[in-house]
Each structure stands twice: as structure tokens, then as C-alpha cells.
Design brief:
Length: about 160
Amino acid sequence: MNVKVIISNDQKKVKIPRGTRLLIRRCCHAVLEEEAFGSDAEVSVTFVDNETIHQLNSQYRNVDRPTDVLSFPLGENGEYDIDLDTGAKLLGDIVISIPKAMEQAEEYNHSLEREIGFLTVHSMLHLLGYDHVNGGLEQVHMREKEETVLTKLGLKRDNSYYMGE
């Protein structure tokens, strides 16, 4: 299984730490492996600032504030568009606010690497159709999958984790 991860940095506020791009690629690959995806896949990841993610959050979710990560799935019910050149399934786009990730890493007292890893894994699961908006078992199931993947990547959580929106 080949996973093409296209990463772009559309913000100037924060220098992207060394190794972040590799971390994101590893996270995307690990989720697809854990989910036994079994097809070549393509995903796009964009780093933005809080102002940009605030606009996107407002425009696409009617939520008037910045957030940490947004997922824009291209597939539905396991059906994906195919890149005609490569045959890869186009999973969608992940948008991460780097300043917000830094704030949260500090707030939850873990590394920025762990925070970016979590946000990437969380978003990849959204691209594959998982959700947590209704809370309950759906949310618990998604959290378990996130932690399984992060533990395999050596990014296990040390204490509590965020159960917010």
C-alpha cells in the first residue's frame, strides 16, 4: 500500500519543527494500516495559522472561532474518487493550525510532536468516515482507535486526554 501525503505550509507564524513532515506521513500510514485500508491512498495536509482556520471553521462548520484541525473528506461510505494517474484513492484534506497545536501541547503538557500526531491521526479517522459529534460509544470508539495508532507510533499519552468537542 502506497500512501502519498502532500504537505504544504500556508502560514508564516511558526517554523515547522524538523521531523514534522515525516511524523505526519507515519501517522497517515499507520491509520491506514490499522484500518486494513488495503489500497493506495492520497491525502493532503496543510499547516495554517489561527486566522485561516477560524475562517474555514466559520465557513464550513458555522463555528465562529479558531480550532485545532479540520478534516475535509472526499469519500463517503468507503467510496473514494480515484487519481487516474496513480489509481490511489483520494481521501481528502487535513488542515492543522500550528499555533493552536502549540497552545494545546502546552495546555495538555505533552510534546508538540504528540499533539500534531494526535491531530493527524484524529483527522485521518474522520477522512475514513469515523465521527464523534454525537459523543457516546462513537466517540469512545474513535478515541480507542486514536490511542492504538499513537501507541504503535510511540506517541502514547501519558495522563489524561481531551474529550472536548
